[in-house]
Each structure stands twice: as C-alpha cells, then as structure tokens.
Write a structure and sequence with these properties.
Layout: H1 4-13, E1 30-35, E2 44-45, E3 48-49, H2 50-64, E4 70-75
Parallel strand pairs: 1-4
Antiparallel strand pairs: 2-3
C-alpha cells in the first residue's frame, strides 16, 4: 500500500488537490512512545528537563509534520504486578 506521505508528495508534483488524498482509513505512519507526565520523576538531563523533552518531542510530531498520520502513546508504570487487565484506555485528540 502506498503511504499517505507519498500520495501527498505526488499530488503536489502533479498539481492535484492534496486534500483529496486524505482518506479516513489511512494507516498510521508514525507512532511515538512517550512517558506520561506523572510516570517518572522530573529530573534534569544534560539536554534539559526530562518531562520537557518528552512534551517537546510530542509537539514536534503534532505541529511540524502535519501531513504524517501519527499516534502518541503516553505510557506509565504500575507498582503492582496484579493490576486488572481490563483497565480503560484514555484517548485524547
């Protein structure tokens, strides 16, 4: 299957309407796995504050690459090994 990004690029070269290539069933092109803000401590790294770096990466994916379909998964950790498997997933746009 041809990627969404490639379809957009080809549409631009042939002067076609780029919005016509935006299908609702297009696969996700990029998945960013990040830590939830409360998952780990907020500590300093040589490159800056840990949580700040994670949120900056999420903003880059959202704002700097709008033509790429993406999903950002914020993961956390559980201290208990016996957590129920049927927990709800929080989904935000």
């Amino acid at each position: 299957k041809e990627s969404k990004q490639n379809k957009v690029r080809l549409a631009r070269y042939s002067n076609e309407d780029v919005s016509a290539t935006d299908g609702s069933n297009d696969p996700t092109s990029f998945v960013l796995i990040s830590s939830a803000p409360t998952a780990l401590g907020n500590f300093e790294t040589p490159f800056g504050e840990f949580n700040g770096l994670k949120r900056q990466a999420e903003a880059i994916v959202k704002n700097d690459f709008p033509s790429i379909s993406h999903a950002i998964l914020q993961m956390s950790k559980f201290e208990d090994n016996f957590v129920d498997e049927s927990l709800d997933i929080t989904y935000e746009n």
